[in-house]
Automatic annotation (TrEMBL):
Keywords: Cytoplasm, Glycosyltransferase, Membrane, Purine salvage, Transferase, Transmembrane, Transmembrane helix. It catalyses: AMP + diphosphate = 5-phospho-alpha-D-ribose 1-diphosphate + adenine. SUPFAM superfamilies: PRTase-like (SSF53271). This is Adenine phosphoribosyltransferase. Its EC number is 2.4.2.7. It holds the Pfam family Pribosyltran. The gene is apt. Its main location: cytoplasm. It comes from the Bacteria. Residues 35-151 form the Phosphoribosyltransferase domain.
């Protein structure tokens, strides 16, 4: 029997600012069966596609991404905010609402012999996910799939990723912001 994962996601109105409906995945990951089923569904949708790594985007993408990597039997690549990884890194800038930020991966982890699945908890405007795909592609690795627990389709991020020739999947969608 399949769980209704959407019912396990808590909505918090007016967070972090008025008018926003924050989709809180902590209630999903606190539910043992719901968390396990989420990871299994994400992995199953990508099994047999030749992935060598899963790249999880900081921070909640680590939660789902590590589980998916284990389920697929592949390596895990943390995509971190600038300055958080030791050793030599490569970075990618991306636009924020007010400014620019940078994400990084280790410079020596991926190359043209790898195929990478990007995983995060939620896709909203798509800025971070597009930056992660661009960063991974700069290594020569193939990166043409991204998976999310939640899609906020009204914000257009999944469509922006598709425009970058990325196959996008999500376990659930929530209308609104």
């Amino acid at each position: 029997m399949s769980l209704d994962l959407k019912s396990l996601v808590r909505t918090i109105p007016d967070y972090p600012k008025p008018g926003i409906l924050f989709r809180d995945i902590t209630t999903l990951i606190e539910h043992p069966e719901g968390f396990k089923e989420s990871v299994e569904r994400l992995a199953e949708a990508h099994r047999g596609l030749g992935f060598t790594h899963v790249a999880g985007i900081e921070a909640r993408g680590f939660i789902f991404g590590a589980g998916v990597a284990i389920a697929l039997g592949v390596g895990f690549v943390p995509v971190r905010k600038r300055g958080k990884l030791p050793g030599t890194t490569i970075g990618q800038n991306y636009a924020l609402e007010y400014g620019v930020d940078t994400i990084e991966i280790h410079a020596d982890v991926l190359s043209n012999v790898h195929k990478v699945l990007v995983v995060d908890d939620l896709i909203a405007t798509g800025g971070t996910a597009i930056a992660a795909v661009g960063l991974i592609r700069r290594t020569g690795a193939i990166c043409d799939h991204a998976a999310f627990a939640i899609d906020l389709p009204d914000l257009g991020g999944a469509d922006k990723l598709r425009a970058e020739k990325v196959n996008v999947s999500a376990l659930m969608a929530f209308e609104g912001h």
